[in-house]
């Protein structure tokens, strides 16, 4: 009798223990499942934020690149129009303002190296504008026209190409050698300073020392 009761009690204890164990295992499995789901959701959230950030930068970069090139083209068209004896096309000022706005926006999101390139491009465009205004004034137009052509198809064109390259690099589209980019930026800065010195020496731009970003 006693043995039978002990056996029944043991069976009951084992049954309860098994039930509790199964419950605990189920709870742990559920916690693990929830943890995995939370981790997956967090990864997806971070990935979504990163993709949105990249897409946002891509839109800003595309707008900046497009506005800079439109500004250059408007300047080239304006020079040719002035050479034909026509008035300065208002489209040039419109392109300048559009570029200025895009450059201001890009300054808020550009990393250090692309920002340096964008700043140098901005200066290059600014000096192109100053040459254009000098040409419009009628002072030694043959010489100024030659300077404009050399500048637009030399340092200015190079700065726009470098800007496009560093923007693509930042988006992971086409990686660049950063040391080569820095060397190119230094060369552009030298070209800009050389033009500034020549314009000052010729008295073509007496206010040059006070202007840091001529394009703006």
What does the model show?
- The chain is mostly helical and 216 residues long.
- It has one domain.
- It is built from five helices and no strands.
- The chain has helices at residues 2-83, 90-106, 112-137, 141-170, 178-201.
- α3 runs antiparallel to α4 (141-170).
- It is rod-shaped and about 125 Å long.
- Residues 206-216 have low confidence and may be disordered.
- The portion of residues forming beta strands comes to under 5%
Q: In angstroms, what separates the terminal alpha carbons? A: 103 Å
Could you tell me the radius of gyration in angstroms?
A: 33 Å
Average pLDDT reading: 83
Low-pLDDT stretches are 206-216
Give me the strand/helix succession. HHHHH
- How many domains is the backbone divided into? 1
Instruction: Report the count of strand segments.
Output: 0
Give structural attributes.
disordered C terminus; 216 residues; mainly alpha; rod-shaped; 5 helices
Quick recap of the structure?
The protein is mainly α. It has 5 helices and no strands. The longest helix has 82 residues.
Write the layout of secondary structure elements.
Layout: H1 2-83, H2 90-106, H3 112-137, H4 141-170, H5 178-201
């Amino acid at each position: 009798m006693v043995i039978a009761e002990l056996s029944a009690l043991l069976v009951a204890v084992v049954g309860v223990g098994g039930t509790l164990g199964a419950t605990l295992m189920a709870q742990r499995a559920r916690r693990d499942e929830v943890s995995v789901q939370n981790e997956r959701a967090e990864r997806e959230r971070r990935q979504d934020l990163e993709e949105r950030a990249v897409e946002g930068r891509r839109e800003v970069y595309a707008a900046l690149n497009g506005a800079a090139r439109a500004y250059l083209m408007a300047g080239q068209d304006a020079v040719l129009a002035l050479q034909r004896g026509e008035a300065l096309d208002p489209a040039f000022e419109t392109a300048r303002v559009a570029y200025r706005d895009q450059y201001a926006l890009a300054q808020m999101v550009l990393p250090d190296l692309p920002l340096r390139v964008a700043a140098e491009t901005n200066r290059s465009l600014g000096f192109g504008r100053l040459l254009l205004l000098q040409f419009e004034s009628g002072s030694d137009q043959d010489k100024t026209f030659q300077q404009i052509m050399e500048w637009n198809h030399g340092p200015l064109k190079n700065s726009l190409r470098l800007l496009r390259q560093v923007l693509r690099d930042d988006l992971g589209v086409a990686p660049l050698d950063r040391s080569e980019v820095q060397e190119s930026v230094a060369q552009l800065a030298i070209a800009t300073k050389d033009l500034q010195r020549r314009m000052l020496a010729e008295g073509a731009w007496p206010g040059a020392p006070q202007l840091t970003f001529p394009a703006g």
